[in-house]
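Translate sequence into structure tokens.
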Amino acid sequence: MKVTKDTVIGTILDTAPQTAPYFLEMGMHCLGCPSARSETIEQACMVHGVNADELVEKINAAIGE
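Result follows.
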């Protein structure tokens, strides 16, 4: 699975649960709530003031993409 800024966080967590720490590091501590799981990486990064491109790169590296 290749992750992009448009990938929904819930999809990432279902497919690659080992990526959860990356979301926690950015201050997204509510990974289980419905709104967090339905946000895209870009939306979450905008709210939390994180660079979406850097997060996408880290996640893809973690899942071997």
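Note: Residues 2 and 64 are 9 Å apart (CA to CA).
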